[in-house]
Amino acid sequence: MLNNTYPYIDPVAFSVGPLHVRWYGISYVIGILLAWLYSRYLVKRGAAGLTTGNIDDFVVWATIGVVVGGRLGEALFYMPTDVIYHPWTILYLWEPGMSFHGGLIGVAIATGLFCRRYKVPFLTMADILGMAAPIGLFFGRIANFINGELFGHVTTVSWGVVFPAGGPLPRHPSQLYEAVLEGLVLFFGLMIVEHLTKVRREYPGFAFGLFMIGYACARIFVEQFRVPDAVASLYFFEISVGRLLSIPVLLVGFGFIAYGLKHKRV
Predict the structure, then answer these.
(1) Residue 205 forms part of a structural domain
(2) Which of 50, 101, 110, 209 could hold 253 in an S-S bridge, CB 3.0 to 4.6 Å?
(3) 217-240 mean pLDDT
């Protein structure tokens, strides 16, 4: 068995005076930038009622939805006790910790408001976002690994990693598992669907449904390797918060696919 000590990486990439720029933030910026560019590419391939200008305008809306929703979700889903006794901490958006499920809700709200404001078809935008979201997920999980957080259970596998905050024994690098499954595998799987079929252009909501199902399955699978968050290791039949929150994501995904199949564009 290899004893792979965690390669320490300073979470601060560089500093400008009192301003500290962290790898975590850089990862989010890169993820959003690449997702924006890919979304523009998808629109050029065809997206009923949507233009690249709409994508450009939506970037700020999506960023706010991800950051605010992700932080609020982290506080409500994973730190409920802190919220009960210190409710003002929910406003500490600069604190570490971002919940995917909270970010998903935040982006969904931002998308709904944006589409209503600019008269853009919601399902068309949702499909584009679903196709591009794995890019952000990949960089977000890499950021988790750099921070040495959200690591897995103790393991004897040869690729186990000794994390500074995880004690002296090797653990599953569950952040990398998620980066591969939620990011790379899901992205290329959706890209294959995009290039070999016309489902995104013909069935509104179908591509977004595929993304939701793919993410939920990947998250539910990886949860068996990942140490549940301190406040989140659960009380619901031993189901972790991550798995519990992914079940409705899975069901909603099937709902979007069913809707798309019944409303084929002509």
Answers:
(1) yes
(2) 209
(3) 75
The full DSSP string for 2-41 is --EE-----SEEEEETTEEEEHHHHHHHHHHHHHHHHHHH
Task: Give the domain range for residue 190.
Answer: 13-262
**56 by DSSP, 3-state: which?**
helix
**CA torsion angle for 102, 257, 182, 240 (degrees, to 10)?**
50
- How many CA within 13 A on the CB side of residue 255? 7
Please give the average per-residue pLDDT across 247-257, as a whole number.
96
Residue 8 domain-assigned?
Answer: no
What's the structural domain count of the chain?
1
In this structure, what is the dihedral angle of CA atoms 62, 68, 72, 77, given to the nearest 10 degrees? 30
Residue 78 falls inside a structural domain: yes
Query: What are the pLDDT digits (tens) for 45-75?
Result: 999 899 999 999 999 999 888 888 877 776 6
Minimal CA–CA distance to 171: which of 156, 185, 149?
Answer: 156
pTM value?
0.86
Look at residue 208 and tell me if it is in a domain: yes
Q: How many CB atoms lie within 10 A of CB 5?
A: 11
